[in-house]
Design a protein that fits this description.
The protein is of the alpha/beta class and 259 residues long. It is built from ten helices and seven strands. It has two domains: 126 residues, Rossmann fold (3-Layer(aba) Sandwich), CATH 3.40.50.700; 88 residues, Irregular (Cytochrome-c3 Hydrogenase, Chain A, domain 2). It has a three-stranded parallel β-sheet with strand order 1-5-7. The chain has a two-stranded antiparallel ribbon with strand order 2-6. Strands 3-4 form a two-stranded antiparallel ribbon.
């Protein structure tokens, strides 16, 4: 839509009328709800009223960016405008959340390409995020993960560990609890991503990331050791459970194919 002002409004409403029930609605930004949504207006109308109107005949909604998906920074405490994400306001339409501050552009392109190719939305996780891009954590795909597993951590941004490219967990990296595709797709045509530039992930694609404590406090508090050991114990527990399940299954069905 290249127009602006009333011409843009006309283009929007013409497009809705010509594609009722068939269009994808892309929403960027959170929606203020306090005082009837008066804190964000376009052409004298609240974004709250506009959303309800343009969502009514959409086939599905793409909530692009952490603000549209989860409310983002405007929703952070004390949230003076009552800002929320799309999913808090629209309950009767399929929604795809593509969080990130900003979101990875290839993820948006990928979701659109999937919809155009297959005529349906991609598989989503329990936060309505495309599984293909948000199924793993940053930590799962991080090139510094080998250092994490070896217990090699930078303790300041200019110590020897930082110079060696060791894990940034103790400097507050939120990669272990953050789902996004930055570590695989990266930014600027695959040039880099925050951790490759020497700073921990701040969890910008997670709900309420701005209120989740300091960006520079480790997820484990002072040391990574307890956190890492807990993760290893959990992994061993899961693996042990899987072995037990397989053993029970093989006892119950001893002639089944083992391949
Ligand atoms: Fe990478 Fe951060 Fe995980 Fe370390 S804690 S391996 S820097 S994602
Ligand atoms: Fe955001 Fe973390 Fe990626 S801060 S840009 S989700 S590496």
């Amino acid at each position: 839509m290249a127009a602006a002002g009333s011409a843009a409004e006309k283009t929007l409403h013409d497009a809705i009328a010509a594609n009722k029930g068939e269009y994808l609605l892309a929403i960027d930004g959170s929606i203020p709800t306090k005082d009837s949504g008066v804190y964000s207006l376009t052409g004298g109308r609240s974004n709250l009223a506009m959303l309800k109107q343009v969502a009514a005949d959409a086939k599905a909604i793409l909530a692009i960016g952490t603000c549209a998906a989860f409310g983002g920074i405007p929703k952070a405490f004390p949230n003076p405008t009552g800002a929320v994400g799309v999913e808090d306001l629209v309950a009767d339409k399929p929604i795809v959340n593509i969080p990130g501050c900003p979101p990875v552009p290839e993820v948006l392109s990928g979701v659109l390409a999937y919809f155009i190719s297959f005529g349906k939305l991609p598989d989503l996780d329990d936060r309505k995020r495309p599984l293909a891009y948000f199924g793993a954590t940053i930590h799962d795909q991080c090139y510094r993960r080998a250092f994490y597993d070896q217990g090699k951590f930078a303790h300041s941004f200019d110590d020897e560990g930082a110079r060696q490219g060791w894990c940034l967990f103790e400097l507050g990296c939120k990669g272990p609890t953050t789902h996004n595709a930055c570590a695989s797709l990266k930014w600027n045509n695959g040039t880099s991503f925050p951790i490759q530039s020497g700073h921990g992930c701040i969890g910008c694609s997670q709900p309420d990331f701005w209120d989740a404590g300091s960006f520079y406090t480790s997820l484990a508090g002072a040391s990574a050791t307890g956190w890492r050991n807990a993760g290893i114990a959990a992994a061993v527990g899961v693996a042990g459970g899987a072995v037990a399940a397989l053993t029970a299954r093989s006892k119950a069905h001893p002639t089944e194919d083992k391949s």
